[in-house]
Write the structure tokens for this entry.
Amino acid sequence: MPNEAVTLSKPFNITTRNSSNIGEYAIKFIMVACSMVAIAVTVGIVFSLFFESISFFQRVSISEFLFGTKWSPQTALRADQVAAEGSFGAVPLITGTLLISFIAMCVATPLGLFSAIYLSEYASRRARNVIKPLLEILAGIPTVVYGFFAALTVAPMLRSTGENIGLNVSSESALAAGLVMGIMIIPLISSLSDDVINAVPQSLRDASLGLGSTNSETIRKVVLPAAIPGISGSLLLGASRAIGETMIVVMAAGLAANLTANPLEAVTTITAQIVALLTGDQEFDSAKTLSAFALGLLLFIVTLILNMISLKIVNKYREQYD
Amino acid sequence: MTNMFTNTSLLRKSRAAAELRFRWFGRIAIGISLAFLFIMVGSIINKGKSVLISSDIAIIIDLGPNQVDPNNINQTGFDALIKRSLRATFPEITSRSDKKKLYGLLSADMGFELQKQIIANPNLLGISQKLWFTASDDVDLLLKGSVDLTTQEGDRRISNLEINWIAKLKKSGNTRSHFNKKFFMNGDSREPELAGILSALVGSILTLSVCFFVSFPIAILAAIYLEEFAPKNKISSFIEVNINNLAAVPSIVFGLLGLALLLNVFGLPRSTPLVGGLVLSLMTLPTIIIAARASLRSVSPSIREAALGMGASPIQATFHHVVPLALPGILTGTIVGMAQALGETAPLLMIGMVAFIADVPSSIIEPATALPVQIFLWADASERAFLEKTSAAIMVLLVFLILMNLLAILLRKKFEKRF
């Protein structure tokens, strides 16, 4: 116990106390600085995306970028080439992103939600202790692995199934990327919804069961309505993950900027285009390179709004029943 | 409503059926999710397990006195020497294109392999003898039985002629398979039979070290400040909102930040573990801070109050008493964050860690690649043999992730205290 004795004696020793006060101010200052890093990172992201985007919008107008329907960023071979700048209409990328995210949410919402309901309301403690970590493995698998699985297993499988029933499925279909992305999001939705459902007070359930309703009726008519805001928050967070997901779409969705709602065709997404524009050789003042930052800014703003709304909803309703 | 009273047994039945149905929806949902997990991992193991074995071919090489000058080994044309020996093994081959196919049975590195064998064992010189060489990727796949021989000749990369040669070599005991050390000892290569993951693995370790040494101290200090000292004011809550939002920002945006700020403004060297580690540390920062705060919050206030009551200053109470108790939880959160960083690919693509790197990087300012990026590169390669390499690299990555998560679970189990 000599350590404690030393700590105790310190406050009585005036000189050490003074020097330790200076030390304590220094430590506190360093800690404040470290906390500010989070703000600095956000500011850094906003500024770096913003400045590059401004120089992009000096070449291409914002309205063309947001409402143009043709995306074909070209590098000029000669300075006087016709259409040397290419066209930068982001609509096909936005619709492609939304299409793939929509497919992903169609897969992840029912699977994630029903898993959460079963785990929180029906499963025994033992089953829960086994299944929950297994589902969390899905969340821990790197996205490049999902991309590999989508491109080399799921896409060829869909293609051959499509051939058998007379459908023409592109080898880089939105469906393959969306399906696999959906699997990736399941654990996110199931664990967040699980939290929200668990936060619904037991008294509500007991009251409903006491009035004679079955378990499923209680869940559908009492628990879920009470948990709906939190669940919608978790779905929004899942959608934001889907929109920002990169590797799966880079590997499985391809780069063809088609404006289509057909999930069997190839589409491209914002993230896949950013990767395509910025890997390889690049000159930093071309519209082609700068357009990647404009896409990044768009992505950042959309996901930020989704995250803010969903975090607010989830936090609000998590506390409400505490 | 009248139905309800006249037909209660029917109603009860349909309600019971609805209950059962609902329960089965949940079971099916979990079943489908887990089935996907097992199919995915299973297909990867299935494709990648053959990488553990690699094949060699033996040929008789004439290393007679007039073939190699022992004083000038580096200048000897070993490729030509091996090609001559190959022709001698199959004297019936005469056409130019067939000869080219014959040379293709061995790895493109064969001359270098022979040179290494001679340097390691100078006694080989002077006589003609049987030596082993790495087989080329297509031959390797054939010997491992991964080539479907029922397909049309034009549909596979290996022709019937080559298959016959290999059958002949196999019959005379001139082929062998052994544990594939090269996969773990080599860097990347254009030739699938020589490509290994060592350079990517070392690149990942260097990147993660940078990430750890940057993010861990910053995150832990920020968490302590926010949890223990920060006054409840607008700035603190703004920092908190910032951290929560950063945790959900798409990873590729961090890559754009690295490209615009670290590479173009600060001029740090491109494609290096230094920049990769910095970008990943910004990404893992929120994860560690959130986990560390939860862990600090779970320490009973009585500990803090007791320390303060005994006359410790707030800093002393925190660093001497609260932090040590929260440390297992903080470390668990850190390991989980590091595991996330290990699997992250997109931001590394943005800062150029996607180049072809054959050498093992020796410092954090040398161009390097990382394990997930290597997987991405190999998945894109056209040679079929890279398919099994990709799967095997994924298995290595998953093994590391499992080890890290096990460590986190063990830490939590061993040191967790409940108050």
Notes: Residues 2-58 of chain A form one domain. Chain A touches chain B through 90 residues (CB under 8 Å).
